[in-house]
Every structure is written in structure tokens, then in C-alpha cells.
Amino acid sequence: MSVLILIPARMASTRLPGKPLADIAGAPMIVHVARRAAESGLGRVVVATDTAAVAEAVASHGFEAVMTRADHQSGSDRIHEALAALDPSGTVETVINVQGDLPTVEPGTIVASAAPLADPEVDIATLGVEIAREEEKTNPNVVKIVGSPVSPGRLRALYFTRATAPWGEGPLYHHIGLYAYRRAALERFVSLPPSPLEKRERLEQLRALEAGMRIDACVVATVPLGVDTPADLDRAREILSSSQRF
Question: pTM surpassing 0.90?
Fold first, then answer.
């Protein structure tokens, strides 16, 4: 499959404004994400941004950027615009959306996000991690996948929720918001209006499920560090400053 990895990046973060350009071990955070994506070896890597300074920083470190509108409501809308600009002829078959605030994400985790698309019945692929900490099971900020196992290490998503679910004995899975789309699935997804459960749970992926699209999740070992707060940024700096990879 022809794969395009898109990394949406915007400067207007509520909790950590300007975070794509936050310095980590001598490079902007968004550049670290692009490096991890390139190391996956899956395909072309492009940062999709609405800010010229981000595009310039990415280009200065040898990566590609594309400018997008500033009024997008979500990262999926931004990557759809970027896809149309970068590949108007429609040759790209698979689009991987890597969040721009995952500077320590492992390349293998990005690879795993696309693995369920080997099944032609799957429209969208994503990731999950078994929850080990009890407090995370009841934390509404930890989104859970309610899924049916279809093979070792893979779930068919039936629902996503901020509640503690499913009930009863057995593992709970933390959803990681890293997605791989078939091109047609992305185009259909962004054409749909926000769905009732999406608005209620404030989880965009429910729009796809409510429309009858299939989402499968590959279960991986660890949750990548998402940088949302100054404390997260300090942790990312600690990790990458001690790493030889940058």
C-alpha cells in the first residue's frame, strides 16, 4: 500500500500554547515526532500545520510541511485537507495520523497502528494498551476501548467511552489516539456530521462507529507520552535528553 504519514500541528493549544515549537534536546517537539515517524519506514512523512513558523522549523530540519487552514475543528479534518493538497491524483491508499505531541513515540508503535488494515474488512485502525493502574480504570480522561478480540493482540472496537467499561472480570483497554485510515474511509469520515454519541462522549471516533465503519485496534505494550502540560514537556525533555536517538 502507498502510505502517507501526516502529523497535524497547531500552535493554539489551550494548556500548552506553542507546544509544537517547544525545544526538546535541541530540536522542536514537532521535529522529534517527524523523526520517529520517518524511522517507522512506512512512507512519506509530512507535517500539516496552520502556522508558518512550524512549517519553517520542520523544513529547517530536513522534513516536509504543508500549510492548511486555521479553522479546522479536528486533526482528521486537517489531514484530509493536507492529503488533497499533497496527493490530488489519489495514489495514496493509506493515511496515518500521528499526533504532533508524541515526541517519544516508538517507530514500532506507528507501524502497529496500521497493522489491522491488512484485513480488508477494516476501515480504520488504531491502538490500545491494557490498563494496569487501578485509578486509570475510573478516570474519564483515560478513554477505553470496548472491543471484541478477533485475534491475539487485536480487538474489533464496538465502542469507545470515558466510563469504566466493559463491566465484569477481565482486562480494560486504554485507547491511544493514533489512527491509520484507508483513504476512502477518511474521506467518508470527514464528510459526516458529528454524531449523537460523539457529542455526548466528546470522542470523535464514535462518529465512524455510528456510521457503520469498522475500527480495529492493535494492542501494544505501552502508552506513548502525550505532551499536554508543562510537566509532560519536562518529562519528554528528560527522556530525550538521555537518549542517543536525537
Answer: yes
